[in-house]
Amino acid sequence: MMFYIRITMSLVVFSMVQVRLGNGHYELRPTKIICLLRSYAAHATELGNEVPGRPQFFLKPPSALVPNRSSIVVPPGVGRLHHEIELSVVISRKGRNISEDIAMDHVEIYLPMLDITARDLQDAAKSKGLPWSEAKGYDTFAPVGPEAVRSSDHDWRGKRIWLEVNGQIRQDSNTDMLLFSVERMISDISKVMTLEPGDIIMTGTPPGVGPLLPGDRIRAGIDGMEPMEFDVVRQ
């Protein structure tokens, strides 16, 4: 994997991330990262939330991207950091008001990602009716797997999706458990905002989310793609 970095206040920030794709590489440069929430019913209920009747989403900044085998950084003041493994979709071409029947024409690659969440900050924001941007948007809060697969070579359905911490399985499910199809997600999102080439859609996490502590080692993956590995450190 290749990447370019800049150093600021001892925190490594990745301004561009490349993943392996076939015999070459694919450069991730999204204009936005769109994250589905509560898209697995069991995850919604484990956190005491209602199961949504339609796709709902929020945004994560591209600056949160970090490549495989780097570190997830616990920011100062964050008390509870949680892991969330997700199937992610990268958009191939610009689209607005995309119908479900042609949605897959707008998908270039799939890859596994983590949605790292400062759960204490999120809970505090939710209780006050405030946005989740701080809880979801820190640098290193969007770790990326080492390998992507082309949409033409991979069906998103029926794939095991899993995550372990320090060798212990935490999340273990199947993409068939998604409440909404990838096609529906793309269509609904594109009714709100234009999807640009390179944009990333994170399709949501299955149940089993849990805490991360400095020193933890994460290994996670989705069938058909090489697993990702990260460690957790305190800033």
Brief descriptors of the model:
235 residues, Fumarylacetoacetate hydrolase, domain 2, 5-stranded mixed sheet, 4 helices
Summarize the structure.
The chain has 235 residues and is mainly beta. Helices cover 12% and strands 41% of the residues.
Mind sketching the topology for me?
Blueprint: E1 3-8, E2 11-21, E3 24-28, E4 33-37, H1 41-46, E5 56-60, E6 65-66, E7 71-74, E8 81-83, E9 85-91, E10 107-114, E11 117-118, H2 119-127, H3 133-137, E12 142-143, E13 147-150, E14 160-165, E15 168-174, H4 182-190, E16 200-202, E17 210-212, E18 217-222, E19 228-234
Parallel strand pairs: 2-13, 4-16, 6-12, 7-19
Antiparallel strand pairs: 1-2, 2-3, 4-5, 8-11, 8-17, 9-10, 9-16, 10-13, 14-15, 14-18, 18-19
